[in-house]
Write a structure and sequence with these properties.
The chain contains six helices and seven strands, in the order H-H-E-H-E-H-E-E-H-E-H-E-E. By secondary structure, it is α/β, with parallel strands linked by helices. The longest helix is centred in the first third of the chain and has 43 residues.
């Protein structure tokens, strides 16, 4: 429960993409007006054709930017609860959130354990999320009332600074796709397996490469690997891959 009247701020995901879509929609609107009111005076059919094309561009890009903004402010709050429900937190687990950003999953996970602890790992790239910084993560944790139940660590999830078999649960939201190289993404998934305790559970939410993640986890002999979704509370739609590290 929040210990403050303030609300946590989990930022805007992919702010550059939303900005670009908004700029394109504005340009589309201006060009649509120009086409309808200027070009049709001399090239009537060309004016109508270009007017329709630019109008569609305006509507589509505006709708996508609004959808993405809504997803960042509302949709991802629902998706984090769905993801955490899938890993069955019992109360005493040690939980790792890789690519924790401003603490969306981290803080919600810390609210669920009664005696456990949540750890957030990130390099805090501001291109991936607006205002991405450890201080923002701590501030949100304080607002959410979990500051004393979390640890925040600066590090790359392709080479995690943790011993083998450290965590009971590993989660991640909209982080691993930011690694462009497939070999590097595979390194990150191998690290998930390495730091999980035998019997530990994982859940990874993303809008790209999720089937690839599932295939890699199967190759690494993880148990009960499955892909859930797509879910449309975020744009682009997201999926969740879940599984468990075998005990034996």
């Amino acid at each position: 429960m929040n210990n403050s009247t303030n609300k946590p701020d989990y930022g805007i995901d992919a702010p550059g993409v939303i900005r670009n879509l908004s700029l394109i929609s504005v340009a589309g609107l201006v060009l649509a007006f120009a086409s309808f009111w200027l070009l049709r005076m001399t090239w009537q059919w060309a004016g109508w054709i270009f007017g329709v094309v630019f109008s569609v561009t305006f509507v589509v890009c505006l709708a996508e930017s609004i959808y993405m903004f809504w997803g960042s402010k509302v949709g991802k709050l629902y998706e984090r609860e769905r993801l955490l429900d899938l890993v069955d937190i019992e109360g005493d687990e040690k939980i790792l959130d890789i690519g924790c950003g401003r603490g969306l999953l981290l803080n919600a996970a810390a609210q669920r354990p009664t005696t456990g602890r949540a750890v957030g790992l990130d390099i805090w790239n501001r291109q991936d999320q607006s205002g991405n910084h450890p201080d923002a993560t701590r501030k949100n944790a304080q607002v959410e009332g979990v500051l004393e139940k979390i640890d925040i660590i600066d590090g790359d999830f392709r080479n995690m600074p943790f011993e083998q078999d450290t965590f009971d649960i590993v989660v991640s939201s909209l982080a691993i796709h930011n690694v462009r190289n497939i070999k590097e993404r595979r390194k990150a998934l191998k690290e998930v397996v390495r730091v999980l305790k035998p019997g530990g559970r994982f859940a990874i939410l993303d809008f790209q490469h999720v089937k690839e993640y599932a295939q890699v986890f199967k190759e690494l002999e993880m148990a009960e690997v499955s892909v859930i979704g797509p879910h449309y509370l975020l744009f682009p739609p997201v999926r969740i891959v879940i599984g468990q590290k075998p005990i034996g």
